[in-house]
Amino acid sequence: MSERTSPWTGAPLVSPVEPPPSRWSMPTSGPIDDSDIVAIGADLEPGTLLSAYRQGLFPMPFDRRRIAWFSPDPRGVIPLDGLHVSRSLRKSVRRFAVAMDTRFTDVMQACGDPKRPGSWINKAFVDAYTRLHELGWAHSIEIYDDAGELVGGLYGVRIGRLFAGESMFHTATDASKVALVHTVDWLNETQATLFDVQWTTPHLISLGAVDMPRTEYLRHLANAV
Questions:
Q1: CA 112, 178, 156: angle at the middle one, nearest 5?
Q2: Which of the 8 DSSP states describes residue 18?
Q3: Nearest-angstrom CA–CA distance, 88 and 177
């Protein structure tokens, strides 16, 4: 297993290891209704997750036992040359320290804090993406304050030139935005071409996110992975 290093800390980054293939066949058709769901079922094994992302799908819990697989139309993306960084955000970038892949599970758990509105990241998802992280496919960007406390971050899945952002959090003003700035810098430095954010929100739109038709997204995805 070869090693790469973090662009900020110099810490080793695990080169991706391909897991056993999924025993499930992922659908390639569009959503079955206006919920953006294309299928229900399967599992969260590493091979299943990678197969899904390679075909433009991502999972979320459907009920206590089943998983829903989404392929939104339109799809939210952040153009890698289109991030909006205000003057105040640039100041915030200088206020915080950044690291990568040093506290992946902690970042996921913070994103899944049940006190957060709309929280959906349960233990099964934390365990599944931690396994994906250990294989070198999932990454976290961590933001620290002057006291060394983790105050923000985000995580997602990197396959080739695709980065599929999953969730982000902050406990200090602008900390999640700072994580986003560093993520875009990393993606540009490593020749990524597609930053998927699933759905746009007013907050993400203010930072430069745009809607992309599903068919166009899938074309970009095919080139990226």
A1: 45
A2: P
A3: 11
Q: Which residues pair with 36 in a beta bridge?
A: none
pLDDT tens-place string over residues 180-196: 999 999 999 999 999 99
Element (H, E) at 51: helix 46-54
User: Do 54 and 96 belong together in one domain?
Assistant: no
Rounded to an integer, the average pLDDT of 94-121 is 92
CATH no. for residue 176?
3.40.630.70
Q: What is the pLDDT of residues 57-100, one digit of tens each?
A: 999 999 888 999 999 999 999 999 999 999 999 999 999 999 99
The domain boundary residue, chosen from 46, 70, 94 = 70
CA dihedral 95, 105, 78, 29 (to 10 degrees): -170
Residues 25 and 123 grouped into a single domain: no
Contact 204, 197 (CB under 8 A): yes
Residues 181 and 83 in one domain: yes
Q: Domain boundary residue among 70, 94, 128? A: 70
Does one domain contain both 17 and 125?
Answer: no
Question: CB neighbours of 171 closer than 8 A, spacing ≥ 6?
Answer: 110, 151, 152
Q: Is 112 found in the same domain as 30?
A: no
Which residue range(s) make up the domain with 46?
3-70
Question: Which secondary structure element, helix H or strand E, spans residue 120, and what is its range?
Answer: none
Q: Which pTM value belongs to this model?
A: 0.93
Instruction: Give CA–CA dist 157/68, Å, rounded.
Output: 18
Note if the bond before 74 is cis, omega within 30 degrees.
yes
